[in-house]
Amino acid sequence: MTQTMTPGEARLQAMAAPEGDIAASTHTLVVGPYLGRVAQRGAGGPNTAESLRSNEARLDEAAGLAAAIELDVIETIFAPVQRIRPSTYLGKGRVEELAGLIKAREIGLVVMDCALSPVQQRNLEKAFGCKVIDRTGLILEIFGRRASTREGTLQVEHAHLAYQRSRLVRSWTHLERQRGGFGFLGGPGETQIEADRRMIQERMTKIERELDGVTRTRGLHRQGRARVPYPIVALVGYTNAGKSTLFNALTKAQVMAQDMLFATLDPTARATKLPHGETVILSDTVGFISELPTSLIAAFRATLEDVIEADILLHVRDVSHGDSEAQAEDVGSVLRELGIETTAARIIEVWNKADLLDEGERTRLLNLSAQGRTDRDSDAPILVSALTGEGLSALTGRIEARIARQRSTFAVVLPPEDGAGLHWLYENGEVLDRREEEGGTMHLAFRIAPEKEPRFLNRFAGARRLNRAG
């Protein structure tokens, strides 16, 4: 029996190979039209992250985003902006200068590392004579390539349609005639250009209904986990901080882990055991990034549910990166938008990529994180290398200590014949200490999650509480 695909799935399948071919043969210019300090103050002042980040680093990141979808970036240009022009974002002289360069270098795509209005985008396309996409469009294109689950592809298409409603007219017609699809590089296709806003809204409404169904399914999965509850440990961090490599090291899984921005989009969860036997669910998540549009945060909120509900957050930072502090601030900003306080006791800061540090910087960071290596319950960062395994034992010890903060400890006395009771304790909590008297009576120190306490106390009424959770 032949299985029919939905139009969206068919477009995704048709898009995969042609998009890569188009991208690889498209000469791309990346432009960094960043506001000067005076202009930033006039606009209300730079935010903390941007004040920490250099323009060179921002431009390098934009080029990295373009490279993540295999675009042929032949040049990057820093184009300082003192005042944003409503018609073209850039000043007239800068537009003419870039137009000359684009013609001379046979540029087919210009990536503007900023948020363009529909009018600005169309005017720049006319002036440059080629395709222009802004930062939001580029990120959406990456998301469209990376999404692999049904939910991910639906979220991408919904976010894309919301973005495209005001951008129905395109100028890169030679690619638009080649095929349909919702990739920006190939254009929206003839049928989509001709479609009006009503048709787009109808499709968005249908996607929203499908997403409601997906959300309900995820809710059932969460309920299933609640019946056999394990602590959730979610990895968060800036894109390319090494979260997937760390996830693989801790779970022995094989999640896509590459030196590439947005290598992971769809959430991945695995059950894994900590050194003392505690089972946790480790969740890898999409990387955060600076200036991520609010609409995209909303669109992918469902993929961050494990972050919102997690018992422990591992904030993974690439400490070898020159803008590590600014990246950490960006992550904190997104977490706050999700209602997660960044000073919460459940956050463990993981300084990753120790193997890339020079000796002096490595020694300095080791001294700063020394408390975290000697005190399992410290709040100091943990310096690790997910690639070499350095520091991972200290990290798993810290995770165990944080879980212990949230649990009560009891003293339990079991008669020698209660093998079933002993089995229950090992299956439902942590046996921290076990001593046997000469006659076989067992004395145990036992730690258990709050949600299991009622069942435990009903089963072992004589248990004595040693300490409370918190």
TrEMBL record:
Q: Which SUPFAM superfamilies match?
A: P-loop containing nucleoside triphosphate hydrolases
| Residues bound to Mg(2+) | S244, T264
Q: Which residues form the Hflx-type G domain?
A: 231-407
Tell me the residue numbers annotated for binding GTP: 237-244, 262-266, 284-287, 352-355, 385-387
Cofactors per UniProt?
Answer: Mg(2+)
What are the annotated GO cellular component locations? cytoplasm
A Pfam family this chain is assigned to: GTP-bdg_M
Query: Keywords for this entry?
Result: Cytoplasm, GTP-binding, Magnesium, Metal-binding, Nucleotide-binding
Where in or outside the cell it occurs: the entry states: Cytoplasm
Name the major location: cytoplasm
Q: Which GO terms describe its molecular function?
A: GTP binding; GTPase activity; metal ion binding; ribosome binding
The protein's role, per its UniProt record: GTPase that associates with the 50S ribosomal subunit and may have a role during protein synthesis or ribosome biogenesis.
Please give the family membership noted in the entry. Answer: Belongs to the TRAFAC class OBG-HflX-like GTPase superfamily. HflX GTPase family.
How does it associate, per the subunit comment?
Monomer. Associates with the 50S ribosomal subunit.
Matching HAMAP family: GTPase_HflX
Name of the protein described by the UniProt record: GTPase HflX
Q: Which organism is it from?
A: Methylobacterium gossipiicola
Question: What gene name is given for the protein in this entry?
Answer: hflX
